[in-house]
Design goal:
Order of helices and strands: HHEHHEEH
Radius of gyration: 21 Å
Oligomer: single chain
Number of strands: 3
Strand order of the largest sheet: 1-3-2
């Protein structure tokens, strides 16, 4: 999961993932959307592929890139778990503040 979040830390890579989730794109078509060289976009795609965020397949001379929903779902589930921990803490703080307002409970 470290690779996933490291790959998503870059705005260009996040944008490539969004485009790849909308549908399959060849790397040349993706490169036209960014103010950088084709080679630079290829490197971004390679990082995303290593993280499992996109998959590539060959179709003749083209390399087609597609978003990997399974990896996105795993990252989302991890974030949900972290959110649950923080929500539990916030709920506990709320309970403590409510106790303070009502005179508190014996500890």
């Amino acid at each position: 999961m470290d690779r996933v979040f490291r790959a998503l830390a870059d705005g260009t890579r996040r944008n490539i993932v969004l485009r790849a989730l909308e549908g399959e794109h060849n790397v040349s078509a993706l490169a036209r959307h960014y103010p950088m060289s084709f080679a630079a976009v290829q490197k971004h795609v390679a990082v995303l592929e290593e993280a499992g965020l996109v998959t590539k397949r060959r179709n003749g001379r083209e390399q087609l890139v597609r978003g990997n929903v399974d990896t996105i779902r795993k990252a989302y589930e991890l974030l949900e778990q972290l959110e649950a921990v923080w929500r539990a803490r916030i709920d506990r703080i709320g309970e403590l503040l409510a106790d303070e307002r009502t005179g508190g409970t014996e500890r």
